[in-house]
Amino acid sequence: MPSPAVSVIMSVYNGARFLDLAIDSVLAQDFTEFEFIVLDDGSSDASPAIIRERAARDARIVPILRENRGLIVSLNEMIEKARAPIIARMDADDICQPTRFSEQVAFLEAHPDYGVVGTWSEDIGEHGEKLHRTGPDHPVTHEELLSFIPINGPLICHPAAMYRREVVRSVGSYHAAFRHCEDLDLWLRLAGVTKLGNIPRRLLRYRRYGEQVSSRHATEQQYGAAVAHLAWRERAAGRPDPTQTLESLPPVEALDELFAREGVSREVRSQVAHKLLYSRHALGDGGFALILEHVRDGGDHAGLWRTVVRLLRYRHPVRATKLAAALCAHRPVHAGAAA
């Protein structure tokens, strides 16, 4: 294909389990004028073999097989290799509905002021079973999306996104510092230079299961999301974004210095702590230390006694004891905080 209309980009890391289903759903699109860049990021499972075999059967698949460099490097590499002016994101464990690309392309053609369009999604489980959806759907219009930002609402489902390549490149594409929340950071930066919205149809089946990135890296993801929102507020206020050139985010205690004002570290620690209370992975990794420091810093105790019980249920008795002792020893700074 000399000049595809769309470049589909999908990074794969040990994704053999669902990879064929994801590839099938892309190749079955009723919109066919695309190249499909599939990058294997150093997988140790059967993913490279699957990609080679599928590329041999369909010339639209452009395989890239190399050592592991991480998702953000992989996404930026594929953006640079893409030949089309429009890029569609896809993940190796999700499933596109057959009309996804045609509907998104039609939207972008009809709305030249929009640089990004996503779609609503349908949640499915590990075995493809339909899951009950909780929380609000993604905002439809740009104005609605802007209203979701201050309340930390969902913006664009990353594997359902389609965007104009040059608009994304104009803001530096994905930033290395925001591992596991690189999409949120990108949407927040793009919201200042273009319009973003969603088609209110469930054109992606989004798979949720215990081994996915959002479950395994909840602490880093929630911390990065909090810092990304801080950076958005700096830009909205006309101040420089101190995260712009970072390769990695500093520890939470360094945020006061990074943002040049007191109270930022405490604010972020409190926000992140309360988002980790129900994450089994976070309570078993560095998220626990952040929660403990939140309590010792005089943070509110809302939901934390129930977290003590949860830690016992997750077989972390030492951590449960430490949290209970901290809750007894440190009273919330603000009167009236719930216990």
TrEMBL record:
Belongs to the glycosyltransferase 2 family. One of its GO terms (molecular function) is glycosyltransferase activity. It comes from Novosphingobium aureum. Residues 7-171 form the Glycosyltransferase 2-like domain. This is Glycosyltransferase. InterPro entries: Glyco_trans_2-like (IPR001173), Glycosyltransf_2 (IPR050834), Nucleotide-diphossugar_trans (IPR029044). Keywords: Glycosyltransferase, Transferase. The keyword Transferase applies.
